[in-house]
Amino acid sequence: MGALGCLRSVAGVGLVALAIAVAGCGDLSREELSRGVESLSALAAQGALVADGVARDATKSTYARVMAKTLGGEAEHEAEKLADAEPEAAVEGERDAAVQVAGEISQLFSELQTFPGDEHHGLLVRKHMGEVGEKAEAIVERLKETE
Question: In order of start, what are the domains of the chain with their CATH numbers?
Fold first, then answer.
């Protein structure tokens, strides 16, 4: 490939990157935000179950670590999606709260991933996952009230 071919390839990649950047993730409606927060609530519930197994010493460390990594990645991805989307003005505060909740869930999964066999950490994570799940459910309720 000559210099002209390389230049065309670089220009093509640049155009694709620019198109993606301009497109962004799009507008975030109340319904989309609500669905995202409901998925966070489900992740918190799953996290509480895994943490409960750790707290009771009823879950293998390998399983807890793998599940924490997988579910934590999902929470992180949801946080990124919500943070990147442009919210409707009416839901901007709730979007920010949802991003915060997603970050908390991700951190709690990180704690489980780091200490998958520690009953004390499992107990603390189970408690905090329940609290964060309640925060997520409260956001969903507020979104429904303001429809």
Answer: 28-145 (1.20.120)
pLDDT in tens, 25-64: 457 889 999 999 999 999 999 999 999 999 999 999 999 9
**How many whole angstroms separate alpha carbon 88 and alpha carbon 85?**
10
Q: For the whole model, what pTM was predicted?
A: 0.80
pLDDT, one tens digit per residue, over 70-107 is: 999 999 999 999 999 999 888 999 999 999 999 999 99
* Alpha-carbon distances, residue 24 vs 27, 62, 89, 134 (angstroms): 9, 37, 17, 30
Residue type, 19: A
Token look-up 């799009």 returns 26
Q: Which helix (H) or strand (E) holds 86?
A: strand 86-87
Residue 28, strand partner residues: 87
- List the end-to-end C-alpha distance of the chain, in Å, as a whole number: 57
Question: What's the CA dihedral at 79, 84, 90, 94 to 10 degrees?
Answer: 10
**Maximal CA-CA distance, the chain:** 64
H or E stretch at 39: helix 30-55
63 DSSP 8-state letter: H
Rounded to 5 degrees, φ, ψ at 25 are -100, 0
